[in-house]
Amino acid sequence: MENKKELRTWLDDYGLDHPLVIAGPCSAETEEQILTIAHQLKDSDATILRAGIWKPRTRPGNFEGVGALGLKWLQRAKEETGLMITTEVANANHVDLALKHDVDVLWIGARTTVSPFIVQEIADALKGTDKPVLVKNPVNPDLSLWLGAVERFHTADIKNIGVIHRGFSTYEKTRYRNNPEWQLAIDLQNRFPDLPLILDPSHIAGKRDIIFDLCQTALDLNYDGLMVETHHDPNNAWSDAAQQITPANLIKYMDDLKVRLESGEAAEFNNKINTFRTQIDVIDHQLIEMLGKRMIVADDIGTLKKEHNVAVLQTKRWNEILGKMILQGDERNLSEEFILRVFKAIHQESINHQEEIINH
Ligand code: PEP
Ligand code: MN
Known about the structure:
This protein has helices at 4-13, 31-41, 69-81, 92-100, 110-113, 116-126, 143-155, 182-191, 201-205, 211-220, 247-256, 265-308, 315-331, 336-358, and strands spanning 20-24, 48-50, 84-88, 105-108, 133-136, 161-165, 197-199, 225-229. By secondary structure, it is of the alpha/beta class.
């Protein structure tokens, strides 16, 4: 990972605008579908057409992709529209077929990134080519696994690498299909600022209505591009119907999104301050989520105390908590006074909740 600059420049070499926009259906379904979408995307900011040919499905029995046949449709779409094309490859045979069909950019799916054996097999199959590879984050929030996959391609001498942030699986149900865990992508960006970072809002959202906001957050965090699932008839898509948007909507979104100015001293300052502010927003959001979770546990304690007729305030326990928090705060450069104030406020809110429970 030492030659980070090398990683960055390929976007410029490809003459790709900021932000890079990749759009197209979750899956290639028919030749007509691919051509219809590709032609509708010609008027958009998208420069690369995406479509899954081999679909990794979590459960068997769902549509598993049209297979190599779809590569011919993508090639035809490229000839007719001038869009570049990209698809997911999940083994050496896929790589071979994609190269034969002149696929411009390859992406590695979230279920592949988790498997070092398969990533290595794909990296070996790509050795000696100059194909750009975009590595999706693994399904689980593990930054090393994500970076490990990037390193395998880097070691195989693949010069043009980027990463796609598509969110992470959680056991707990959230408003997202895959939780964004922005902090993880921010950490990656801080450690490897030259690694192109692309957001896939579609697989994070799982449904159309939050895609725009996710895209705006990504641009505010200075992401380099977006990969948006786009279908001419989303409701009747053969996979991921709820999260696809029409090309017309993509065009509207791109018009409405605020993209940062890229040069000039003032623009640079604005970029930086906006990125920091968005990072703060992400963290504040996490703080509230965590406080909400803490309060649910406090409520459960309240119910238990009510059942066993125990007093709300347990002074000994509270003093123990505070002592630990002050020590931990000190390690993070947070003053004792601040920790006391914050935890007194949190504790008071818990007591209010518990009193409410006990008195009703
Ligand atoms: C996809 O992009 O269609 C896909 C299957 O994505 P992921 O690997 O992120 O689930
Ligand atoms: Mn999909």
